[in-house]
């Protein structure tokens, strides 16, 4: 796969991605890219850093290496935004620790992922990864007990879906309680007992928090990237998570095992797509085994190019989103259930389009 981002992205977004790349590729750390010497729109750079939830990383790199070429007001804005994010992260982590103590008392199995777990175990710094909420995965049989514990900590249910319950507090902290990793429209075969059996533990303060093993973490992150791309709302911090995980775990990963696990769970295409998209934006290094697999998947390059274009959305805006989503869904889903869910979505869309046409007809109310 090619490093294709420069063909599609504006200079400001390229600069944001450069900061991410040099954070995880030490060989680049002492090279001042031409992009910083050109006439950047610094307000636009701030905007992209915030939209893609990459402000902490951008500030980390710019403040340490590029202060001389960055306006002082931009440095101050980045520093202030990072301070706010760090405070929010700390408060969310405090809530997570309190909740886990209660879960342990009630013998409820809970897997925490993303959020503080990635910040601490992958980024190595709670303030370096921006996150908006806490994500917990539980066994369906424990829903009622878990909801009661969360509600006792002043969280209130804001929405229920077929795969998660969303909570929020008055101080704007949010929590997603998952009993599946994805909705029925984007089914994946990663089940709780299987994930729990292989889970790892991460110590935060005085608590041991259960989270995914590195191999399953990679698969789950690729699921997240693929689902967000399919929903046409992908942000680049999700790709940064994959790059960060690979940068610390590259030597530990048994890639043959990962490919076997992905095939077993019918997630091979989702894994390939997540890695290929991260390669396209961040030019990560992949082992020859994976690179060979990506080359052999004829559908990947087209899907990645379309997704890069839609994430950038700088030429003609986003068009034909429905057909992009249907095509990507078809490419990514390997199971019968996944293909069936696409038929259901198509039927729903056709009914919606028919209703729109009917409502516009002059005699539709008669």
TrEMBL record:
Pfam families on file: NTP_transf_5 (PF14907)
Protein's name according to its UniProt entry: Nucleotidyltransferase family protein
Originating species: Nitrosococcus halophilus (strain Nc4)
């Amino acid at each position: 796969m090619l490093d294709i981002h420069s063909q599609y992205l504006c200079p400001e977004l390229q600069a944001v991605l450069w900061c991410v790349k040099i954070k995880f590729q030490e060989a680049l750390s002492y090279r001042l890219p031409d992009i910083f010497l050109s006439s950047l729109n610094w307000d636009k750079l701030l905007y992209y850093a915030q939209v893609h939830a990459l402000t902490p990383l951008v500030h980390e790199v710019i403040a340490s290496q590029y202060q001389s070429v960055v306006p002082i007001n931009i440095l101050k804005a980045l520093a202030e935004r990072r301070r706010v994010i760090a405070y929010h992260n700390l408060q969310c982590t405090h809530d997570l620790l309190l909740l886990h103590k209660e879960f342990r008392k009630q013998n409820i199995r809970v897997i925490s992922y993303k959020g503080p777990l990635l910040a601490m175990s992958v980024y190595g710094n709670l303030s370096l990864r921006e996150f908006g909420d806490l994500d917990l995965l539980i066994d369906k049989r424990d829903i009622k007990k878990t909801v009661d514990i969360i509600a006792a900590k002043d969280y209130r249910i804001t929405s229920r879906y077929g795969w998660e319950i969303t909570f929020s507090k008055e101080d704007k902290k949010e929590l997603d309680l998952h009993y599946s990793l994805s909705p029925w429209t984007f089914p994946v075969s990663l089940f709780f007992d299987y994930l729990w059996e292989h889970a790892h533990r991460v110590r935060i303060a005085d608590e041991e928090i259960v989270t995914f093993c590195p191999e399953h973490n990679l698969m789950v992150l690729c699921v997240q990237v693929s689902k967000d791309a399919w929903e046409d709302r992908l942000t680049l911090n999700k790709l940064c998570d994959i790059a960060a995980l690979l940068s610390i775990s590259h030597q530990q990963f048994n890639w043959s095992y990962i490919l076997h696990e992905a095939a077993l769970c019918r997630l091979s295409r989702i894994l390939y797509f997540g890695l290929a998209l991260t390669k396209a934006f961040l030019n990560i290094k992949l082992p020859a085994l994976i690179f060979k697999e990506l080359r052999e998947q004829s559908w990947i390059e087209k899907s990645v190019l379309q997704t890069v274009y839609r994430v950038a959305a700088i030429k003609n805006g986003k068009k034909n989103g429905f057909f992009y989503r249907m095509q990507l869904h078809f490419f990514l889903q390997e199971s019968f259930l996944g293909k069936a869910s696409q038929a259901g979505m198509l039927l729903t869309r056709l009914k919606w389009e028919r209703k729109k046409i009917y409502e516009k007809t002059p005699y539709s109310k008669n």
